[in-house]
Amino acid sequence: MGLLLLGLVLLLPGVSGLPFYNGFYYSNGRDPGNGHGEGLFNGVKLVVETPEETLFTYRGASVTLPCRYHYEPALVSPRPVRVKWWKLLENGAPEQDVLVAIGLKLRSFGDYRGRVHLRRDKEREVSLEIRDLRLEDYGRYRCEVIDGLEDESGLVELELRGVVFPYQPPQGRYQLNFHEAQQACEEQDAVVASFEQLFRAWEEGLDWCNAGWLQDASVQYPITLPRQPCGGLGLAPGVRSYGQRHRRLHRYDVFCFATALKGRVYYLEHPEKLTLAEATEACWEDGAQIAKVGQLFAAWKFHGLDRCDAGWLADGSVRYPVAHPRPNCGPPEAGVRSFGFPDPQTSSYGVYCYRQR
């Protein structure tokens, strides 16, 4: 009976109900007008402006995600608003809170705490500045402005400049479920690539016949030169897709994404060839650490690392980067060559080290 009466009361005109909920819990007791006949409920529209183009930057840099708002028609008097920034995640995961601001009071969340603040250099600007960008910071961000019962939002796409590379573990081809693929990329100073990143890599010439996990738990592979073992000769070049796969039961390789480095990768000049353990120790004695696969790819892509000497990496693989193809240095295309995973105790090679700046 009580619920029925509550429902009838809420339906009556002029009777105040429960405070409005729209992502935040608040009750606005102010007159929405400003004394001049202007107000959000008097034909005035709140508009949020964000850029349509994707913003590109590098790991370790600072970036500003632009966001401004205005009213149509314009209001004379300033109005207090609440601003919220959050990041949209893949795979149906809930949004990740980044920052909330009410007036001059700010609160940041999670890994963004201490790295973000609101820029208000211009009138009604509520842009988000992120410092010391991390690999996982790329993606889509939403800027929401709330004025009383009205709220509007806009999206900003942030992309890091980087390199996509296929990865398989020492156990061989198609050994990783989705969660293991995520861990494998993280261990190589990388993250699982998004479809957009893989597609961009395909446009730049990436051709790989082994299917790999992507960030949205789909499995795909890029083909620039159609051939029988890679989907057949009858298909046009493109990114082939197996669609969404079971994250725990299905096993594939993975496409990882690494971005520009804050340090330096180099081939260690050493009088002797080394086992994996000796190579790890040699880098440490040189004030560095043995390089990871993602670091070697980033050094090749962004710093033009070019060396025709095979060297150990942290995962036990042996590779070498070629920026300028030449005779007796592998295939005619630029890239990172791989010798696979030799026996770490009986095989001897050079080593690639990484020194943090």
TrEMBL record:
It comes from Propithecus coquereli (Coquerel's sifaka). May function in hyaluronic acid binding. The keyword Ribonucleoprotein does not apply. Residues 1-17 form the signal peptide. This is Hyaluronan and proteoglycan link protein 3. Residues 163-258, 263-355 form the Link domain. The keyword Disulfide bond applies. Residues 45-161 form the Ig-like domain.
